[in-house]
TrEMBL record, chain A:
PANTHER family assigned: BLR5612 PROTEIN, SLL1039 PROTEIN
Residues that span the membrane, as ranges: none
Species this chain originates from: Luteolibacter luteus
One Pfam family this sequence matches: Alpha-E
Protein name per its UniProtKB record: Alpha-E domain-containing protein
Record domain DUF403: where: 1-313
UniProtKB/TrEMBL annotation, chain B:
Taxonomic source organism: Luteolibacter luteus
Official protein name in the record: Circularly permuted type 2 ATP-grasp protein
Domain Circularly permuted ATP-grasp type residue range list: 77-452
Length: 344, 475
């Protein structure tokens, strides 16, 4: 398939997954607040700050907002267009990518994504967000589930599928690591690592949609070790890092056609090595190493897989091009030219 | 629904002058009359919703948010009886054959100029004439592979050709989607009416592309070349590519090596045989035409001239849809085919002919003036509704550059009942059939009926607030 198309499919799904993860995160933490006695504004700030830090947008946030009250954080993460990683912006990006490769998508798939886009940009969406945020986030989550379901039922298991699946699992693995990392930013007194704040671990499990599955595997209250073990190393839970990396490794080898356990490009090498570590690692080791440090390194390696993937399948075909590059035109000029092509 | 309907003295598609319903509309009228107005409105709104969700839209420019708008759809179809369609089919077939012979001649021997049928300077000064392509052979000698010729009906119902669009006709996707929309909204409407299906269009388009492939071995690789997702017709580009099962590519996805065109895929380069291009000649190749074009493919013209890739439509076809050349099409038909034109032109005055120019300048308030190479309803003067200033401005333009203008009397386009906010009212329409010229000529039965939604307006272009209807050709 065209390199450009592969790239767009991959990003389309990454952005959908991003919107889904964020809506879980906000929902769960918003619910969490309701379970606690009224928090004063300082405690509120302390509560939300780690969440902002975990999505890596703290600089942007502080640029626009003076406070970190619930409503401000929620707005910033949900439908602030100035935040390129907000839910609304992510869905907009997903749709933009989908538009570029519309010929690759079944009608139902496009319609699902487009309907979600139309909904969150409508007055109706805005009203629901203000009146019943729980329903609002549920709508987004259901739409993304439906999207994945339609994709699974209507996309042939060809390269298109592999690139989409890659996008989904890379994004998912990255988000799991970020949710786990929330605990690293908590103020000392709340630090759940010493077992004080199980409710944080519960919230993280919920954000990853894994509380039920966790309970089926682990008895008793969620502990640091139990949750890390589950979200990091569970071989069968679809939102564990190990599960995601296994899928990524499989996708990469399906695309290149080389047997698993060998590699022909750097994306495969990094993924294979990471998979081995996850297969033989343990939560105790991670906590000893330092959770935050470990997660940081993990995120870097996930990024590396994304970068190498791009190098191999999108940029490399470009290097076959011997032509002198056309002087870079700015985006608006290109858009203007595209518009200027006469369609009689 | 139709009780208060007035034909207002225009030729009405549905009703004869005495208010009699025309026979080929009778069943439709009966079925529509059985639907309550609010139900009818609900179904129409459902069509809009469907178009919006499906993204059957066009991009509106000059708007800070790059708004996508749906093409307004009117649920009252336009019906064409079988015999009438046969006449149109014969006329359009004759026309496209003649236009292709004309283009081949213009880019080779130029007999028609030597024989003095068309003054040479009209060709040489045509904006889209490409002298550098003289002597180049194109696959199967086909220049206009896809043509959209606009038809209108005058006061007595006579069909005229208003213009030929032989460079990059668009709108076929809306024709197909309009049929789907009407089927969804009024599922029982089509029963036992004998409406000819239109869904063969993408297959016929692909057959034509295969037919012009320069390579014999294996299945030809065809692609659709789009300017990109900001173009107004991007929806159509994707739609047609998907329906045909071919890749939609942008210029940057293609590369020319050793005079062959390849596309960049995740598995390396794949040779391309046929390109259905939806970008202008000027932007195709920065090494030949506009140097700053990032939409095109450097070297593609070399591959084309070497006969290694086919382009649909060919380069340089714009000379045939120059509005000045339009004036000569009846002569072109006579010259190449020795036949009388089956479908007449609208009477036309050429501003560069002295007597015509004199007439034009004296009668501007009652004429329609058109620039030779504009489309989409731009660059026009509608004399009867123009202000003094506009008329004066056009007068200057015509005197300054007479080669660039033609004028025609105002044709009072036929009208069709149209659902206008809860009432049936007459609105002016035209017809855009789509003609495919491959191994033989294929015309999708029907076409896109465009309707001027503003009361009294004669301008049907979507860029000027026009909508469209489903078009039924009866068996």
């Amino acid at each position: 398939m065209l390199s450009r198309v592969a790239n767009s499919l991959y990003w389309m799904v990454r952005y959908i997954e991003r919107a889904d993860s964020l809506s879980r995160l906000i929902e769960v933490n918003g619910q969490l607040l309701l379970d606690h006695e009224r928090l004063d504004s300082e405690r509120l700030r302390a509560f939300w700050k780690p969440i902002i830090l975990s999505t890596g947008d703290e600089t942007l946030f502080s640029e626009f907002y003076s406070d970190a009250s619930s409503s401000e954080v929620i707005r910033f993460l949900t439908n602030d267009r100035r935040n390129p990683n907000s839910i609304v912006a992510s869905i907009g990006q997903a749709r933009e990518n989908a538009r570029m490769v519309r010929d690759q998508l079944s009608e139902e798939l496009w319609e699902e994504l487009n309907s979600l886009y139309l909904f969150i940009n409508s007055r109706e969406g805005e009203l629901l967000f203000n009146a019943d945020p729980t329903r609002y986030y549920e709508t987004i989550r259901r739409a993304t589930f439906t999207f994945h379901g339609i994709a699974a039922a209507s996309i042939a298991r060809s390269e298109s599928w592999e690139f989409m699946d890659l996008g989904r699992h890379l994004e998912r693995a990255d988000k799991i690591t970020r949710f786990l990392d929330i605990t690293s930013f908590l103020p000392e007194s709340d630090a759940p690592v010493n077992g004080a704040a199980t409710f944080h671990w519960t919230a993280i499990l919920r954000s990853c949609g894994g509380l039920g599955a966790f309970r089926a595997e682990h008895r008793g209250e969620p502990t640091a070790e139990g949750v890390v073990s589950f979200l990091m190393f569970s071989p069968g839970f679809p939102r564990s890092v190990r599960f995601c990396v296994d899928r990524i490794d499989r996708n990469l080898h399906s695309i290149s056609g080389t047997p698993r356990g060998t590699y022909t490009n750097d994306a495969e090498r990094v993924a294979g090595r990471l998979l081995a570590e996850l297969a033989y690692g343990s939560a105790a080791e991670v906590l000893e190493h330092g959770l935050h440090l470990y997660l940081d390194e993990l995120q870097e390696r996930l990024n590396e897989i994304g970068t190498e993937l791009f190098q191999t399948y999108v940029l490399l075909p470009d290097s076959t091009d011997k032509r002198p590059p056309i002087p870079a035109a700015n985006m608006s000029a290109v858009v203007a030219w595209q518009m200027a092509q006469q369609q009689q | 629904m139709f009780e208060a309907y007035e034909a207002d003295g225009f030729f009405d598609e549905m009703f004869a002058l005495e208010g009699e319903v025309r026979p080929h509309y009778r069943t439709l009228l009966n079925r529509f009359s059985a639907i309550a107005a609010d139900d009818f409105e609900a179904r129409r709104a459902a069509c809009d919703q469907h178009f919006l969700r499906q993204g059957v839209t066009f991009n509106v420019y000059h708007d800070d948010r790059g708004t996508e708008r749906i093409f307004p759809f009117d649920p009252v179809p336009r019906v064409i009886p079988a015999a009438e369609w046969e006449h149109l089919e014969a006329g359009l077939t004759q026309r496209i054959i003649a236009l292709n012979l004309f283009l081949h001649d213009i880019y080779h021997e130029q007999h028609i100029l030597r024989d003095g049928i068309i003054p040479r300077f009209y060709i040489e000064e045509a904006k889209h004439y490409r002298p550098e392509f003289r002597g180049i052979n194109v696959p199967k000698d086909i220049y206009i592979h896809i043509c959209g010729s606009d038809l209108i009906r005058g006061a007595d119902g006579t069909y005229f050709v208003l213009e030929d669009n032989g460079r990059c006709p668009s709108g076929a996707s809306y024709l197909l989607e309009n049929r789907n929309a009407l089927k969804r909204a009024f599922p029982s409407l089509f029963e036992s009416l004998g409406v000819r299906p239109v869904d063969a269009y993408p297959r016929e388009l692909l057959d034509m592309l295969h037919h012009v492939s320069p390579h014999r071995e294996g299945e030809p690789v065809c692609v659709l070349l789009t300017p990109g997702c900001y173009n107004s017709a991007y929806f159509e580009h994707c739609y047609l590519a998907r329906e045909m099962g071919i890749e939609i590519v942008e210029g940057r996805d293609l590369v020319v090596m050793d005079d062959f065109v390849y596309m960049r895929t995740t598995k390396g380069l794949v040779r391309v045989d046929v390109i259905y291009r939806r970008i202008d000649d000027d932007f195709l190749d920065p090494t030949v035409f506009r140097k700053d074009s990032v939409l095109g493919v450097p070297g593609i013209m070399r591959a084309y001239q070497a006969g290694n890739v086919a382009l649909a439509n060919a380069v340089g076809t714009g000379v045939a849809d120059d509005k000045v050349i339009y004036y000569f099409v009846p002569k072109i038909i006579e010259y190449y085919l020795g036949q009388d034109p089956i479908l007449p032109n609208v009477p036309t005055y050429l501003a560069s002919e002295e007597s015509d120019r004199k007439y034009i300048l004296e009668h501007l308030p009652e004429l329609v003036v058109k620039a030779a190479n504009e489309s989409g309803g731009y660059g026009m003067l509608m004399g009867p509704s123009a202000t003094q200033e506009e008329i004066a401005k056009f007068k200057e333009k015509i005197i300054e550059d007479p080669r660039n203008f033609i004028a025609q009397p105002v044709v009072s386009l036929s009208r069709s009942p149209t659902w206008c906010e809860g009432n049936m009212e007459g609105r002016h329409i035209d017809l855009r059939p789509y003609i495919i010229y491959g191994e033989d000529v294929k015309i999708v039965p029907g076409g896109l009926t465009r309707v001027a939604l503003r009361k009294g307006s004669l301008v049907v272009n979507s860029s000027q607030g026009g909508g469209s209807k489903d078009t039924w050709v009866l068996k």
